[in-house]
Amino acid sequence: MVLFPGSNCEHDVIESVSLLGGQADVVWHGDTDLSAYDAVVVPGGFAHGDYLRPGAIARFSPVMSAVAAFAAGGGPVVGICNGFQVLTEAGLLPGALQKNAGLKFLCTTVECEVVSTRSVLTAGASVGQVLRLPINHFEGNFTCSPSTLAELEAEERVVLRYRDNPNGSTASIAGVCSAAGNVVGLMPHPERACNALLGSADGQVLLRSVLSAARTPRVPA
Fold this sequence. Notes:
Layout: E1 2-3, H1 10-19, E2 27-28, E3 40-42, H2 62-72, E4 77-80, H3 82-89, E5 96-98, E6 106-114, E7 130-137, E8 141-143, H4 146-154, E9 158-162, E10 173-177, E11 183-186, H5 204-214
Parallel strand pairs: 1-2, 3-4, 4-11
Antiparallel strand pairs: 5-8, 6-7, 6-9, 9-10, 10-11
């Protein structure tokens, strides 16, 4: 779990991972060694206060070189909300996240459809499966060029799509993955949907997929 100044969802992820039988540690953004870990999560929050652009400063943190190397070695990397923004700024995922359509902060639960299972986040789900997941963002409007969108669609790299687009994202995209499928970014928070008593347990299938990928021998990306 990579912690930047301003991250605020790391304990949510740790709690959910522990609930599902995994273990998680917090790695400070100044650290440069991820060799002890089987998966990396970049959690939500406001890394470095979201100055300039969300994730624009975090991408220069020492840990991001280690995250890039971890990803290149085939390690599972998941960026949630602000973490998704960090991964796009770092060039580990395509596209960018801009201000929501209507310029309003969104804090609600949305329905997302699983579009592809060729990622470490969705491998345990089913195409067409609908998940109820919370969102909590102001700059979650995914945008990319027409050529990039065509590439993402052709390579089945759009992993989640909003059923009712809340923020204006291109093609209603809620999450995408890298060409190898081991790096994934999504705006909804699966870690906040792991307990039915709190509204939804639909996030479990996504986090279980990541835990399963963490236990699988790596193939360099």
